[in-house]
Amino acid sequence: MGGLGGLSGVGTWCRRAACTAFAVNAISIAPAMAEEWPTVPDELFEALNLDRDVSANDLYEAVAARYYDEAQGYGKGQFSELWEPIAFSRYMDPALYEGREQLNFDVSAEDCVTCHESATPGWVHAWDRSVHADLEAIRALPEDDSRAYKIEHLQEVEANLRSMGLLAEGARLTEVGCADCHMGVGVKDGNHMADLRLPDSAACGQCHVRQFSERESERDTLTWPQDQWPAGRPSHALSLLANYETAIWAGMAEREIAEGCTMCHTTQATCNQCHTRHEFAAAQARRPEMCANCHNGVDHNEFENYMMSRHGLIYQTNGGDWDWEAPLSEAFASAGYNAPTCQTCHMGVDGQYSHNLVQKVRWGFAPMPSIAENLAHPWFEDRKDLWVATCSQCHSPSFAESYFEMIDNGTTQGVDLVQQADAVMKGLYEDGLLVGQASNRPAPPAPDEDTFGGFFGLFWTEGNNPTAIDYEYAQMWEQEIMRHFKGLAHVNPGGFTYTYGWSELIASLARIRDEDTRLRERHALEERIDALEAAGDAN
Amino acid sequence: MGGLGGLSGVGTWCRRAACTAFAVNAISIAPAMAEEWPTVPDELFEALNLDRDVSANDLYEAVAARYYDEAQGYGKGQFSELWEPIAFSRYMDPALYEGREQLNFDVSAEDCVTCHESATPGWVHAWDRSVHADLEAIRALPEDDSRAYKIEHLQEVEANLRSMGLLAEGARLTEVGCADCHMGVGVKDGNHMADLRLPDSAACGQCHVRQFSERESERDTLTWPQDQWPAGRPSHALSLLANYETAIWAGMAEREIAEGCTMCHTTQATCNQCHTRHEFAAAQARRPEMCANCHNGVDHNEFENYMMSRHGLIYQTNGGDWDWEAPLSEAFASAGYNAPTCQTCHMGVDGQYSHNLVQKVRWGFAPMPSIAENLAHPWFEDRKDLWVATCSQCHSPSFAESYFEMIDNGTTQGVDLVQQADAVMKGLYEDGLLVGQASNRPAPPAPDEDTFGGFFGLFWTEGNNPTAIDYEYAQMWEQEIMRHFKGLAHVNPGGFTYTYGWSELIASLARIRDEDTRLRERHALEERIDALEAAGDAN
Amino acid sequence: MGGLGGLSGVGTWCRRAACTAFAVNAISIAPAMAEEWPTVPDELFEALNLDRDVSANDLYEAVAARYYDEAQGYGKGQFSELWEPIAFSRYMDPALYEGREQLNFDVSAEDCVTCHESATPGWVHAWDRSVHADLEAIRALPEDDSRAYKIEHLQEVEANLRSMGLLAEGARLTEVGCADCHMGVGVKDGNHMADLRLPDSAACGQCHVRQFSERESERDTLTWPQDQWPAGRPSHALSLLANYETAIWAGMAEREIAEGCTMCHTTQATCNQCHTRHEFAAAQARRPEMCANCHNGVDHNEFENYMMSRHGLIYQTNGGDWDWEAPLSEAFASAGYNAPTCQTCHMGVDGQYSHNLVQKVRWGFAPMPSIAENLAHPWFEDRKDLWVATCSQCHSPSFAESYFEMIDNGTTQGVDLVQQADAVMKGLYEDGLLVGQASNRPAPPAPDEDTFGGFFGLFWTEGNNPTAIDYEYAQMWEQEIMRHFKGLAHVNPGGFTYTYGWSELIASLARIRDEDTRLRERHALEERIDALEAAGDAN
Fold first, then answer.
1. Among A247, B26, C93, C341, which has the minimal tally of Cβ within 10 Å of its Cβ?
2. Which of A257, A286, A315 is the last residue before a domain boundary?
3. pTM, to two decimals
4. Do C126 and A338 touch (CB under 8 A)?
5. Cis (ω within 30 of 0) for the bond into B278?
């Protein structure tokens, strides 16, 4: 035993096809592939009919053209006739931004800082701390600085701009100033009213072609094999479309409340949901709290689950010592992470990190029977394998596989509770027995239509629509099953078992069954009274 | 375009009356005004009939006299006959503190540390870390130390004590020891039972006249134009009075539960709710967590909303690098804040920072129709302008204005839901149809009186008071509308739209309407049975 | 007054029997007692019939023998016939761990790191950061390093191994490698399938005899005088037994959900619930977040309460500056804590710190009448005195005593609300009036039996079991009263008064009474209809 024998045994193990962890790591430590745009998935090139060796300019043109195409998700969506933006909306969606009415004067790029240092100093200070404010400082970073990888990023940006004809051969960028983003790359002056724009994702993408393309590739890698979701969704790349085309969002009268939804769904429109303006710090975007801005709360409590998981608790105790300036590829090496973050798991695929965060999505944002029933399909199996490889950086593949079995079975058990409730609700609705159903159940505002437990009922009420159990059921299928799944997926045991998830689903189902019995018993009583009255009349 | 033309355009802009941001910043960087007590609002001087050039002694005398005046909020309040303090109460309210029964012996000021180093070392260690323990160390701070501003503070304190005859001309303070606060400034010995006191706000105020006056000025700057709240409330300065004069607080039998309320409401009585004893560190009091001690939870989740807002998430990721020792006026400059804290927004008015935190209060602690209907009144408009100026340190005034429009409209929409529920509840209550209303609805303990959805029902129950929907409605008007507003005001979109606030209000209103239909239908059934029985009897 | 008089007065005070704080501190600064195993309570030696001067080997043998005794809590418990582990279970409970089917090859201890550095680098990196990876580095620590206490720990471990014959006289440990834990102390090679084990608490205990014995002594110090709980529970030492012997846990069909419970209850089986593998850092285990992994949520929100208490808020603001490497005995001294942590209060007894965390438990995990009624019993009184001494490190004993009076009275008031609800529920259940009780109330899965408000109803539902108020009542006695008590005990005033606890109990009781009236009125209506129908038939 031991010695050469042992090593040869190891060799055998590591050659096993099942040893996905090792295989994945082999990829991650392989020399950079000769392939162009290696972190942009094939699916994007296929969708846009591009070759992999496309130039930066052509790639950007194609990605941006689709980004701006109303037929493919840009703009106000199919219910645009039904709603009007409020004043605040234009700050959430650059497509709605109109020129400023008041400040009609000409400015040069140099004026920006001079005046805004007094007018809105916060903007200027934030920019001043940013990489954008001093690109020479980046170039001067010593090789062993964990930010040194940005030197290459900068060269890439310059190459992109040269490919677009926006930077002369031999010229170099020294800073990215206000006007570059708010008027156009390289623009030197303009009118403060007519020429100012609110930068959108495509504006950032002009310099950051690769990152923009990665993000936009989310449209292409979400190809649900049984059409569980529309193609390309749910994703950051089409999140604003999803918002605008949600019936109750478009139909509700209270536009300020609706705007609260938009405030998260703006990821399609801007990059600064993750890269806070005007510092845009990658080091900050790597922190779990930046995901929390949207990924929290009643319908998808990822942040709460992560923070209460072993992973998140290690982050809370040790994260202060990790090097947030290092790129994600260095997380478990020189950056010293001893637990994963949102970013290391969700941005990493096969040892590569990108701005496409949905390549491993399986249950998505809605555990439902059509997913539960198709988990054996290769689309789901392949994605599970990618997940197992992710976990196997720190856990054994068999541990990871057994935990994924637990996630899938546990989630399916939760879906079954929702289905049981669905049957009860459907029965009551079809029998016309919901409280007030016969007398006082107005339809929700168009384009929505009435149904039992509709999503609309979480945001709108009139008469007896929704009833108490309509709301309860909407919570089940839209919130509790999600918290249940998210608790399982983020390894927060108290979360999915008890505090949220399973026990909540049990409570809701019990309440719905309680009401079912009650309404049917009441109906029977009423029929007996009808009969007594009829008998009395007959007398 | 550009050049001089641009600059002159800028000049035009900055001269605009609407350019509040610039105006405010101009004030904040202006040299200190010659005015005495510049951070104490005019309203306090008017209320106390003092000139602005009043001496420290006279200012303190007047402020403290009012502080101790039972007719103006000191002591146990108008329901004092109804409740008795428990043993713990005396530690929350120095006015209830009685001499210690047991430790009747004489001590000198020097003995304190000697004995308590063994007896309660935590006290001594905390004091030892405090500024109070070594004032010479403060005097020795180099000019570029961010705590150097405390040298001036110390001189101010010495001037105050000289004005009161408590410090000789030429003498200087070297430390503030136990006896100075627990027996009296400069007292050297006393009886451990008879002479010990629990320091109150006025005890701190003797040295810190300015800060005490700022805090006490909260009574004067809350002058609700339509009497939405009693004058001077809701405020830290009268929070204990508000506690003692809440009917259910005074009337409930469970004094330990009531004491839980007092534990937050003690801000009127002490300064150490924010300045934790015995370190009293300003650096700690500047952290959002210190506000969280009270400002969290079911009825006003400010902390939760802040922490999940972009502002709070930046604090969570970057706050560790900010200089907490620097004064708030340096927050966005040398202290390096790149997001606001509770303190920078709520303590700052027109570029000045003070311990009056209510000068910009508009919706206060209870969004209600009488506020919603009067937002165009100058009192509310002026305060909104001060808020817009606060936000405009980092956002454009038009962005801030549009967001305030969103807060106001969104909150008003929530208030409307509460009003709809109110009408339903009133109808049921007046018709005597609430569950058990006719048979088993005892009155709440005096001084409270029965009503539908009363505040008392959140803390007390007997028979069928409150009913399930009484409690639900109390949650609406006292908690959900507050969380809705607080979510809007603290920019936590998921918070007000979905997780808390709007969707909760929808659910509660739907449940109340569900119950309304159910109770009225049940009543109709009962009448039909009555009729059948009457018919039967007639037969 | 003052001077000698003062000092003599102080002397009188400090000689008082009531001055528990001083007495305790005297103990904590006394030289180490000559007694062997001073931190292991007498109760363990009595229970195992050992002398205090027992050798490490004999102590370990006895403690481990009991640990592995199925009659005393090892293994699958009394309902083991009813459930099967899932694949993931074997990673939670080493007793269920089976050899790996696949990796049947021989390895030497040196191979582990070589291969796993590629296969699962996270394991290797974590171990590499651990004390285990370089014991010489520990020996080389300078005396003033806060980790220097580990030198003595290391000597103790070596003495333990010598006592067991696992380390030769004169030999010394240089590292603890993979095989030492996963194959056996000192083992040099083995078969990757047959010889690998998942280390359990006893595996850690072989080196860490004292800590293992402290932990195991929890079985012995929880001797409830009125049998409120089974002996030795609730505790970490028997937590897995408690899990396996919970009727609904054993009986429920959804094993993945049940596994969620196990994920916390595994503390009996492993040490790495607190000492995260493979770093096992004591510095991390001292952080409140490590307790939070289990102690959070709907049924015992200790972490949430702590973090929102003054204590936790100070931790949040200042904890970053405390020396987490220092032992707990240095917490308030050289380590610079200015607030307590979970660990300083719950691991400390009489100035000593140990891994028995239940020596001061009084209300435990379930405030109930049998505790409320017996608080004057010496068992509870003595434990309260130990608590008061703990608090008196930073608070006056009279403050601490008054707060304990508040905890006890406030909790008792909450228990009274639960009792009132119990009476109503019992009445409805005995009268057969719960919704669906007569027609559609299936029994829960064996070994559970039906009752009103049973624990099973939080995790299982079928037909009309549980009803809405069964679930509500289960929340009261199992969750809300706990949150109420935990809020009181962890000094989170909004927590117990309002957000959780008291106000929730009020709401639940009100809803149950509402339903009681409703069901009884409905029943009366039905009887009237019966009578009318009978009269009609008679006609």
1. B26
2. A286
3. 0.94
4. yes
5. yes
